[in-house]
Design brief:
Layout: H1 8-14, E1 17-20, E2 30-36, H2 49-54, E3 64-67, E4 74-81, H3 88-101, E5 107-111, H4 120-134, E6 152-156, H5 164-189, H6 197-211, E7 214-218, H7 220-226, H8 229-235, E8 243-249, E9 258-269, H9 280-283, H10 290-302, E10 310-320, E11 332-334, E12 340-342, H11 350-364, E13 368-373, H12 377-383, E14 388-392, H13 395-408, E15 412-414, E16 432-433, H14 441-453, E17 458-462, E18 468-469, E19 479-480, H15 485-493
Parallel strand pairs: 1-6, 2-4, 2-5, 5-6, 9-10, 9-13, 12-16, 13-17, 14-15
Antiparallel strand pairs: 3-4, 7-8, 8-10, 11-12, 14-17, 18-19
Helix pairs in contact: 1-5, 3-4, 4-5, 5-10, 5-15, 6-10, 8-11, 10-15, 11-14, 13-15
């Protein structure tokens, strides 16, 4: 990542032209047509349903069949599933399926056919989002990348002609939303040797200048002055300096509220003295800064999305390494708010860096806090790679994240903040321990963070399971998903003080 291109995929996204209107075969290298599980097959494909079924294509959602042509654009039958089940999420997935099936082509067009109960503007937005997100690839370190960059995407959407202004607005919003995820993906996919805490700070400054938010960087000396014992403690084993990256967005006019966003930014997590096993999950620990990446991605969209609330972000960044200076089991760290914490596992480091940020958010007087972190393996075990748990102390804030989840297609599931488990965090020698018992690890981690909220309305997103996928899946390409960036942007866009 050079200083002139802090996020390589961002330039590729900016270059894509997205339009809605009649498909132009002369302007496309591949044309897709939605085929439902029942009913008429689009005549443009030149095949009837029986012929498609002989080729193994039934119209099942997520399926596609490429039909090479002697001349003109390649044709693609795209499975749309049951017509009665069409909604915004299904249309987003439909566009993603087509864009990936046409991955060899730079100029693509898709005809949808039916929208169900989805209005034309919403359909245009989610179709654009699906295509842009599905065609993402991380090629920054490849000397000869094979991926074909998307240059133009067009969509034929019923009723779009009568909703011109709304459609144009939806396309613009979709690009902003996709941009937030692309930025988060690029950052999370970057190897830790190429993206240190200090480098992430530099990138944040560049993005802030471009997208209209302020950035303040706190080095080791400044963190010592602030008393951020959690971040400093985790950093002890590293040869790299830590950074707290504070982001500030202020809307024009009177703000509707003040939202605090906290992101875990462990640039690489070895586990520290509690060393992780050398398995495929260890390789993914370059993505342990996925929470910080999601917050930074969301900030790039606040101005263009017209967010009316003030938003402040804290990205807590360091790697977690074993060395002769590393923090140890039995050490006691002192958080920004004076809470003392006994370290019983150095691989439960994310909550230690985040406790300082949550304390600072409370001091700042925000109306609500949302934190996001690749925090616990328990979240992955409980809900898998598709859905992230949300917990919190305020149902209104939780509901805001759930509504944003539904709008963006980034699934959340609320888990209870079961306070009867809180005694598991008691310590014999300090105020708290940094881990609880054997069970309900996602809940005890959230209970730890809850201590520092001091009853400020708060929601916690644990994205350990959803930070990456092992294979292409709808609009989520293999590797880092950028999960949370779009969700946070949607939450912040409509945030208002209770």
């Amino acid at each position: 990542m050079s200083s002139s291109a802090p996020v390589p995929a961002l330039a590729a996204l900016d270059a894509v032209t997205v339009t809605v209107g009649a498909l132009d075969a002369a302007a496309a290298d591949a044309l897709g047509f939605a085929v439902f599980a029942e009913g008429e097959v689009p005549a443009e494909l030149g095949l009837d349903r029986a012929a498609l079924e002989r080729a193994g294509f039934t119209g099942k959602a997520g399926s596609s069949l490429v039909l090479p042509q002697a001349e003109g654009p390649e044709l693609v039958a795209v499975g749309a599933g049951e017509a009665a089940e069409v909604d915004a999420a299904a249309l987003r997935d439909l566009a993603a399926t087509f864009a990936r099936a046409a991955a060899r082509h730079a100029r693509i067009g898709l005809s949808v056919g039916a929208l169900g109960d989805v209005d034309a503007a919403t359909a245009a937005g989610v179709l654009s989002e699906g295509a842009l997100l599905a065609r993402y690839s991380y090629t920054a370190l490849k000397s000869d990348p094979k991926a074909v960059a998307l240059e133009a995407a067009s969509f034929s959407v019923p009723g779009a002609e009568a909703s011109g202004a709304a459609v144009a607005g939806a396309l613009a919003a979709a690009r902003v939303c996709a941009r937030s995820a692309v930025i988060a993906r690029d950052l999370a996919n970057t190897p830790p040797s190429h993206l240190t805490a200090t480098r992430l700070g530099d990138i944040a400054v560049e993005l802030g200048e471009r997208f209209g938010f302020g950035v303040e960087l706190f080095d080791k000396a400044a963190l010592t002055e602030l008393g951020c014992g959690g971040l400093l403690g985790v950093n002890q084993g590293s040869a790299e300096e830590p950074r707290m990256i504070k982001l500030t967005y202020r809307p024009e006019g009177e703000a509707t509220g003040h939202l605090g966003l906290v992101g875990k930014g462990i640039m690489y997590d070895s586990g520290g003295i509690s060393l992780k096993p050398s398995d495929p999950m260890h390789l993914l620990m370059k993505m342990d800064m996925g929470g910080a990446a999601a917050v930074l991605g969301a900030f790039t969209g606040l101005r263009d999305a017209g967010a009316t609330a003030s938003v402040t972000g804290w990205l807590m960044c360091t790697d977690n390494m074993p060395s002769g200076t590393a923090y140890k089991l039995g050490d006691v760290l002192t958080a920004r708010d004076g809470t003392t914490v006994e370290v019983k596992n150095t691989d439960a480091e994310g909550r230690l860096v985040m406790m300082d940020a949550i304390a600072l958010a409370v001091e700042e007087g925000v109306d609500a806090i949302i934190d996001i972190a690749t925090l616990t393996g328990a979240a992955l075990m409980a809900l898998g790679q598709s859905t992230a748990p949300v917990l919190g102390n305020d149902q209104r804030v939780i509901d805001l994240t759930l509504a944003a989840s539904a709008a963006t297609g980034e699934p959340l599931w609320q888990l209870p903040l079961e306070r009867k488990y809180r005694p598991q965090l008691d310590s014999d020698i300090a105020d708290l321990s940094n881990i609880g018992g054997r069970y309900a690890g996602a809940t005890t981690a959230a209970l730890f963070l809850d201590h520092f909220t001091r009853k400020t309305p708060w929601a916690h997103l644990d994205i350990a399971g959803t930070m990456a996928v092992d294979a292409d899946e709808a609009w989520r390409p293999k590797g880092a998903t950028g999960f949370g960036a779009r969700l946070l942007l949607e939450t912040a866009r409509g945030f208002a003080k209770a």
